[in-house]
Each structure stands twice: as C-alpha cells, then as structure tokens.
Amino acid sequence: MALAVAEVERALTANRRCLFLSPHLDDAVLSCGALLTALADRCSVTVVTIFTEASAPPHTRAAASYLRLCNMTSAEDLYVERRREDGQVLAALGVEPVNLGFCDALFRRRTGGPASSLVGRAVPELAHRYPTYRFDIAKGRVSRGDRPLTEQIATRLRHVVSRAAPELVFCPLGVGQHVDHLIVREIATRRLSRVIYYSEFPYVMTSDWETGFRRRRALEPWAFARSLQAKRSLIAAYRTQMRGLFPGGTIPLVPEVYYGEAGNAGRETPGDLVD
Fold first, then answer.
1. Which residue has the higher pLDDT, 269 or 152?
2. How far is CA 78 from CA 31, 136, 234, 240, in A?
3. Fewer CB atoms < 10 Å away: N or C end of the chain?
4. Is the pLDDT of residue 265 over 50?
C-alpha cells in the first residue's frame, strides 16, 4: 500500500487536518461522501469547491440542455440552488465549505473576438471557451485560453491552503476527462504536497480510469467501502443533479477508490504549495 494512502487510514483514528478539492458543487460528496462521513467525526475537514458560478445568457445548446435537465430556466438561479444544496450537505457533515467562485466550463466565455460581437450573441457557441460538452468539455483537452484561469485558481488556493494547513489533500483523478477536473488535478499535482487522488463517481462506472496518469505517477489504489448508505442519503440531497446523474432514480452503492504514490510523503512540508 502506498505510504500516502496509508496515512488516510491513520487519519480515521487520529485528528488529521484534511482538505478536499471539489471541482463542482457535488464532486467531493459524490466521490468521497463515505470517507467524508467517517473523517468528519474525528478530523478537521475543509472542502474547497472551485467552479461554483455560471455566466449570463445567451448560453450554448449544451448549457441550455443542462438547465432543462435540472428543471431550471435560469443559470443564475440554478447555481444559487446548487450552492445551497452543497452548503446544507456539508454543514450536516460538519465540514468547512470554501467556494472559490470561478465559472463552470459549461458557461465559461471567451474574452474578445466573437465573444463580444453580435455574431457571438447570435451563436453562443462562438463566444464560449467550450462550445459543447461531449466534444469539448469531456474530451480531456484543456484550452490554452484557460491558462490564466489556472494561475488565478492556484493563487486563490495558495491562500486557502495556507490558512487550513492540511496534512492530507484529496483531489480528483480525472475519470471522465472533464476539463475542470483536469485543471484541479494539474494544480494539485504540480503545487500541492501530500496529495491523494480520488476516482470520480458516478463516472468511474462508465469511463476509463485514467490509466495513463496512474501509470506515470505509479499510483497505488486503496478502497473504502464503509458508510456507503450514509453517502447515498447525502447524494440524494443534491436534488437539482439527481435526474442527470441517476436517470433511473437509484444511487448505486460503489466503494470509493483512492490513489497515492509511495514517494508522496517526502515532498515538502504537509500542506505547503510547491512552485
């Protein structure tokens, strides 16, 4: 078992400061809800959610379809409700939520060019960084235009990490290839220490397991299968997301899988950002 992952087991019996990086307003609970439930009673836990906002209309067809799936007509109203859902779930767990307020990839707009023109308003796809979900957001190709955004996120995280001083940091593995998840993974991999990667649920049930990244980092798995019934109740509280994530209405009970690398414990002081 990787040393870094073994430290998770020790955290279950000792007061260790843990920080979870959640790309969106449900990812931490979807993927780590069982472990969060077990840790919250005995550890200081912070959940930092990165992409918690939407832009104003006009929206792409993909974004409009997502709004319909959530039974909402306004993206602003949807994200108000999503923040409320997430806040209530995390409060019930007793963990500290931190929302960074960056725009979700589905609503992220370009700057200049077609984004500010009549053409961009008439054809919203031309004005958005990722025009579609299937062929852009979920293809695992982070736009060069998101490089400044990545630096902004890293700067904000530096302050959060400095304050929280975590001994373990959990971040997405990138299962499903969502660009927002890959941005968060890149920042954690390059700039944070004591990193544990979590496999994203429910995408892990239908998508590749990021075998290339796992092989390059020599990551070793660790499964956690306790508190899954409690996790199911937490997920059900995200009512705006249930229809899209679980069309049949049933939330499967799937063990959570975490990955760590044996040499991770030797990188810098726990919680320090690495430049």
1. 152
2. 22, 22, 19, 8
3. C
4. no
Among the listed residues 20, 18, 64, the one whose alpha carbon sits nearest the alpha carbon of residue 43:
18
**Nearest Cα to Cα of residue 176 among 218, 220, 208:** 208
User: Domain with 152 in it: what CATH number?
Assistant: 3.40.50.10320
Q: Give bridge partners of residue 128 from the DSSP assignment.
A: 109
pLDDT at 181: 97
Residue 15 in any domain: the answer is: yes
Q: Read off the pLDDT of residues 198-210 as tens digits, 9 standing for 90 and up.
A: 999 999 988 766 7
Which residue segment(s) compose the domain that 75 sits in?
3-59+71-108+144-266
Euclidean distance between CA atoms 181 and 82, whole angstroms:
18
What is the C-alpha separation between 103 and 157, in angstroms, rounded? Answer: 15
Q: β-strand 45-53 against 18-22: which pairing, if any?
A: parallel
Name beta bridge partners: 48. Answer: 21, 98
195 pLDDT band (50/70/90 cuts)?
Answer: very high
Q: Report yes or no on 122 lying in a domain.
A: no
134 within domain boundaries: no
What's the rounded Cα separation, in Å, for the pair 173 and 236?
Answer: 23
The CA distance from 105 to 169, in Å, is 23
Among 62-71, 133-142, 203-212, 242-251, which stretch is predicted with the lowest mean pLDDT? 203-212
Q: How many domains does the chain have?
A: 1
Contact 56, 77 (CB under 8 A): no
